[in-house]
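Let's sit down with a protein and look at its sequence and fold side by side. We need material for that, and I hope you will provide a protein of your own picking. Once you have written the record down, we can walk along the chain together.

***
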Amino acid sequence: MFNVRRRVTAVHGRQDVGKVAIVSHPAVSTESADHRDLAATDQCGASGRAPLDGQKFGVLPDQSTFNPLRTDHVNADGQLLSDPGLKQSDPRQTGIEGRSLHKIRICHQHTMLQFSKYQGLGNDFLILEGRQGQLPQSVVEPAPIWVRQLCDRRFGIGGDGVILALPPQGQGDLRMRIFNADGSEAEMCGNGIRCLARFLADSDGDAPGKRWAIETPAGLIRPELQSDGQLRVDMGAPFLEPSSIPTTLPLVDGLARGSADLADRALEVAAVGMGNPHVVVPVEDLNAIPFDAWGAALEVHHLFPAKTNVHFLQVHARNRLEIRVWERGAGPTLACGTGACATLVAAVLLGMADDHAEVMLPGGPLQIAWSGRHGAVLMTGPAVAVFDGVLSPDLMPAGETPVAKPLTPDAADNAPFDCSRDCVDSCQQPDSCLRDAAQQQVQAFLNSTSLDAMLNLASESLEQRTRARFERDTL
């Protein structure tokens, strides 16, 4: 479960005989585990840690000694079972030799879905890897209620949005879809695309100088990894025509601007598009405004038919701006990359700022440049990994089940040998059985490794990624 490529779980069988198979995406926990017959050191381990009841765990690190093939479940006599849940009287009974008294729940009806959480200046996102087309359709086209559940900070994982890394549809390296915490889809997000780029660099081991072409609903966006670990993003040219933002504000001296009437007053505002709509409201003192009331009212104001992100701007100097952010579909957030870009463009056209400035947000600063008042806006800022995780079956999209796609006759003839598919009825390579070899390797590993060591090894993936990231960023 923690290793993308391989998973190990105990196979259904008698309690006194345990076997192991490499299977794809089971959901495993030690819920209702029975430790009563185990020695105290076996229950808690040498370190005295508590029993694992109710915890999800996966066993099998990325070891080169293991053959990365998939085998079906086998029973205690070594016979293949096409559906263990139908062939065993008690599908909850399972055992690993030396740990056979544990009762492990195996949920065959669900797949496990890995995610990574990243944040850019406190704007945090859940990122799902799908560049190889491996995500199910219910995730690629998520229901808003599922996105809201994931982003809920008390009943879900928590985040300002969900980002999907998908196969490209055009000339890009990949395609990004981003969904706000309320389940609505956003055209673009500056902090989100920096987080996605950092995720790509961490996942693929990319060095500084790596540049990606990422397809978004706002167009092709090109982030680049810098030597200090930050990301510089070519955000493209701003949208200034009112219809392209969109807004019904009039165009005045190259900028859509005018008065927005609220319940208690009228505010002078300016609108800029960065593939998504933004309204900028200059104020004298950010701490003296009714931020929540104004932000909520402007987000859904009739001047913005697609709703809008809202940014209140205080100018400290021509090269130092400060904003507070009310994001469309998310409310108050610590940062908004596209909003920082839109704010600089509006401030430049209003004569309030230079074309290169530091934009301070509640989560930290971004460097924004719009050289010569034309062309692309460049944004530079950080993105940081927070943690990796696995969605429990209860957090999977409703009704999601793993469905094997049947091969067409032509595809079946040309498909490479797959033990899990081709040896269901009988072994097709008895002289060099891949399943037996894999089982022997797994059994040897289990015989020589304690359960505590397996759990430690299974958790090393994030540690290794974090160490590699730190080493790259400090060179």
